[in-house]
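Revision sheet: structure tokens.
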Amino acid sequence: MFTQRFSCLSADTRKAIFLVCLAVAVVGVSYGSLAMAYGFPLWLPLVLSITVLAGASEFMFIGIIASGGHPLAAAAAGLLVNARHIPFGVAVRDLVGNRAAALLGCHIMNDESVVFGLAQSTHEQRKAAFWLCGLGVATLWPLGALLGSVIGSLLPSPEAIGLDAVFPAILLALVIPALKNRTTLIRATSGAAISLAAVPFAPVGLPVLLSLLGVLTRKK
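Predicted:
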């Protein structure tokens, strides 16, 4: 029955979803390894990967805490990063299911599941792609984090092997295409400037939040 539910998807779509979920697992390995290298207990990245299920927020959380930031500041930064899920929820409201199923459907909503869900031509295919990708990410992300945690406990410091550069590199790769838009470039640059200017004076974690003021910048 599980196979029949996704049989409406083409083989190419199922393959693409599998490859994306596999890539997510690889990033999860980096996340788990980095958490261990920063001195977090093994259970933390695993619990976060299951309950939060939002890679960028989780990376940011452990990064801010490891830098000496307050957990509330780290949590607030993670929530702001995931604020994009509000319009996502509106866009896929007919795909998440009803009643109890909607709780799980909302939990597995992420960038990948939304993109695959909205890219299909029929409602049946959209719903199948959304759930297949969402469940795949919800399964492979924690597994990757667990594997990374085990590996990370055996590795030297993150600086020695470059693990501390994983998260900035991932964010940079995600951001660069958006910077082709002039308005986005101006606002991102303004936010970065505000954040850097606040570093010497603001507590760890707060400059990240202050960078959001960059969205108020208008193109002249």
